[in-house]
Design goal:
globular; single chain; mainly alpha
Length: about 130
């Protein structure tokens, strides 16, 4: 199974189209978790955890920190442009081959909504 096919299967589970993980499943939309405090509160409640954003701006030093920015945003993790990192790979043929997948993009839009600049995937893949 390709990574794209695996992601599509995860997306189907996230959306409830499949139910392999039926026992106390909590799904998390990272984009919403990153940007929306009320969503983080909801996830905390679903996990029966006391809500705290105390570590929200912390960048772990484990493994050198962020694979994109290392420790550059320690104390300011919310300033990282995490939802646009995919654009760094628009010149990568392997990435474009993987991501130029109508079913994957369909499920991405169902989960995350219409993401700005996704048309660049097709423009880059057609070069």
């Amino acid at each position: 199974m390709s990574p794209a096919d695996m992601w599509i299967e995860y997306a189907k589970e996230f959306l409830g189209e499949t139910s392999y993980l039926s026992n106390n499943k909590v799904v998390i939309n990272y984009n919403l978790w990153f940007s929306d405090i009320s969503y983080r509160r909801k996830i905390s409640a679903a996990l029966n955890l006391e809500f705290s954003d105390a570590g929200l701006n912390y960048v772990s030093s484990y493994g050198g920190g962020s694979s994109f920015e290392q420790q550059n945003f320690t104390g300011n993790a919310q300033q990282m442009d995490v939802t646009n990192r995919w654009k760094l790979f628009l010149d990568n043929d392997e990435f474009l081959k993987l991501i130029k997948n109508d079913e994957l993009l369909h499920y991405s839009e169902k989960i995350f909504g219409k993401l700005p600049d996704t048309e660049l995937i097709y423009l880059g893949a057609n070069r």
